[in-house]
């Protein structure tokens, strides 16, 4: 049937019709809020390229966590800024490291399932050279890095992490982490792996936030080439075979096609990371008065969900939750 018999506008006439046939709905249940934790006392340091985001010292977390819980956001994703960096990133797997301290504090204050604490497992914030693994002869050595990542995952689990999120992109790290968690009795801790993580320039503001810019070279020898979709599917498949429970596609908006393919080809939960650059662009344009920030935020998150993501990791989580808690969007 064609015009004039069929008129799609009939069902768009007003909000009563629109809400009835709406195909995708965002929910607070899908959101994960990233947090940056630093040493010191009374620190709440603004991140200039990510307006509204801060580096928090552990003693400043209470208020923030209460707000997150009151907004009904189910999970946080923790990134740490260490006191000292070195060649092998030792603070990443030290029992008195920043994330380990933060986890002990959080788990003491908020019992699961009030707030789920997910931890990023990667060495880049902790190494003096800023790469995601151990550097040998000017290159990131895959196999030497695996042991460090597994040590880091275990120390997070011991300190109370509810889920482990490896973001380093070394080959074989999911299997290594799964095996080590199981051997240490943590067989119930799931792995949410950054399976399809692209070498993206949209991570720029994060590297200021986490102080993790590589001191030489770039991350192209371990993160994926943004040109590749079939390779992304192979990476996801590998991580599933190695025991990952949730698969992350990252970044989100430049990768809606990847999210969509991942959704149709795999039955596992898919998460999308709406990264720092995606956040910064909206904030900057809104500041200039060029975009309606709240609408662009909701439309972006909606499109990520529509593409097929079950979980959305986003710096907008609190702002979106404030809207979602009032109306269905
Ligand atoms: C650590 C890591 C990065 C991000 C998440 N985990 C940075 C990177 O890979 O360079 C980026 C997150 C963002 O941009 O919001 N490897």
Key words describing this protein structure:
329 residues; alpha/beta; ten-stranded mixed sheet; two-stranded antiparallel sheet; 11 helices; 37% helix; 18% strand; globular; binds ligand PBG
Topology record:
Layout (H helix, E strand, L loop, with lengths): L14 H7 L9 E8 L5 E3 L7 E4 L3 H10 L4 E7 L16 H12 L6 E6 L12 E3 L2 E3 H18 L3 E4 L6 H11 L8 E6 L6 H6 L20 H13 L3 E5 L5 H10 L4 E5 L1 H12 L5 H15 L3 E4 L2 H8 L5
Parallel strand pairs: 1-3, 1-4, 1-12, 4-5, 5-8, 9-10, 10-11, 11-12
Antiparallel strand pairs: 2-3, 6-7
Bound molecules: ligand PBG.
General description of the model:
The chain is of the alpha/beta class and 329 residues long. 37% of the residues lie in helices and 18% in strands. The protein has helices at 15-21, 61-70, 98-109, 142-159, 173-183, 204-209, 230-242, 256-265, 276-287, 293-307, 317-324, and strands spanning 31-38, 44-46, 54-57, 75-81, 116-121, 134-136, 139-141, 163-166, 192-197, 246-250, 270-274, 311-314. The strands form 2 sheets. Strands 1, 2, 3, 4, 5, 8, 9, 10, 11 and 12 form a 10-stranded mixed β-sheet that branches. It has a two-stranded antiparallel ribbon with strand order 6-7. Helix 4 (142-159) crosses helix 5 (173-183) and helix 8 packs parallel to helix 10 (293-307). It is globular.
Largest sheet: 10 strands, mixed
Shape: globular
> Low-confidence parts, pLDDT < 50 over ≥5 residues?
none
Summarize the amount of helix as a percent range: 25-40%
Count of helix runs? 11
Q: Tell me the series of helices and strands, N- to C-terminal.
A: HEEEHEHEEEHEHEHHEHEHHEH
**From the helix content, strand content and strand pairing, which structural class follows?**
alpha/beta
Please count the beta strands (DSSP E, at least 2 residues each). Answer: 12
In quaternary terms, these chains amount to: single chain
